[in-house]
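User: Predict structure, ligand adenosine monophosphate.
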Amino acid sequence: MYWEKDLETLDRKELERRQLEQINWTIRQARNSSFYSGLKINRIDSLEAIQDLPLTTKEDLRNQFPYGFLAVDRERVIRLHSSSGTTGKPTVVFHTREDIDRWQNLIARSMYAVGVRKNDVFQNIMGYGLFTGGIGFHYGAELLGVMTIPIGPGNSKRQIWFLKHLRTSVVHILPSYALRLYTFFDELNIDPKKDLNLKIALIGAEPHSNEIRKKIEELYGIKAYNSYGLSEMCGPGVAFECTQQAGLHVWEDHFYPEIIDPDSMQVLPEGEEGELVLTTLSREAMPIIRYRTRDLTSLIPGNCPCGRTHRRISRIKGRNDDMLIINGVNIFPIQIERTVMAIPEIGNNYLIEIRKKDYMDKLLLKVEVNEQVFQGTLSELEKLQRKIIVELREELDLTPEVKLVESASLPVSDGKAKRVYDFR
Ligand code: AMP
Ligand code: ZN
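Assistant: Predicted complex:
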């Protein structure tokens, strides 16, 4: 059940002792880079004292493009990845061979934790390339020793053909694409529950509600586990759900997590929601100290029944910058998703549009509905529409406009889903 029992179940005291040692190593290593060369603090004497170190932001990474964070000789770098940001200068991340080895190992550890074994067939439906999702899992899966199909996303019919004929048992897939892919089975006359050998989906790389996870589990008759990561830390393999499905273990022997209040930047106690800040503990090529991820979550108090001692974070609620302010009300898109996806007649995709009209913000929700419902009578559709409005009003304190659309009719991208269009 454990890939590395000693490390995954390490006594907390010992784990924290090692973390402190590794933070001090990281400070020394980081000083080799031009960005951290002027760091005023040489070492800290307790984990709490990490708060004395400055925070690092995405903006810092951008400003230092390309080599400002590099802490080893360029010749030792064997790989570069880049974050998925679409605007402005890209940010790049460097890895030595040892960095890559450690990363692979964390992916293997994560996959093993949810039951992936050598005899599985693994179809990696995440993008390969600069994005870390595809390549990251690819090497981790190979280290675990599982047969890996590097298919990448898209081409849904070929995807299904491989799923069926190679008896794929594990996939790594964007949650939005898992729902999209489902809409192709009917046409091919394949029943994902009966005709496939699929057991596990590793889903992540984009925010998704528990309702979306459940939907994927039910549609395919499988278990879906949440995988969290970001290129700045390595990519996937930072935090992963165990089979308890009650939060994601941050692999604390390689990353030190804190939760801060994004306004005051003060560290918050366990259980309180705020922005996740991460420090790399073992990265050579590009150590990063107290990186503001912008992702909102909390550290879950208490022990996990799985026996792992590494602390858990709750499902990511969204990014700081995702928050919408609609007529003064703060809303996260995931709140809308949670409400809507819990309604059984709803299909697999939705989209949010916001416009200004007569000085007021108007939120329009376009949502796909099941085939049968869409074929139903007008009054049934109107009833459903009213139901969505009422439930959203209760949840959000705002009355949206709702438009029901046909299954698989909303636009989807090959990469992370873009579901909010703010035209204000
Ligand atoms: P990138 O560095 O381009 O791979 O993007 C990393 C970002 O994707 C993170 O900072 C999160 O905002 C988002 N992300 C990754 N995994 C998850 C997940 N499991 N749940 C929610 N958001 C995620
Ligand atoms: Zn656990």
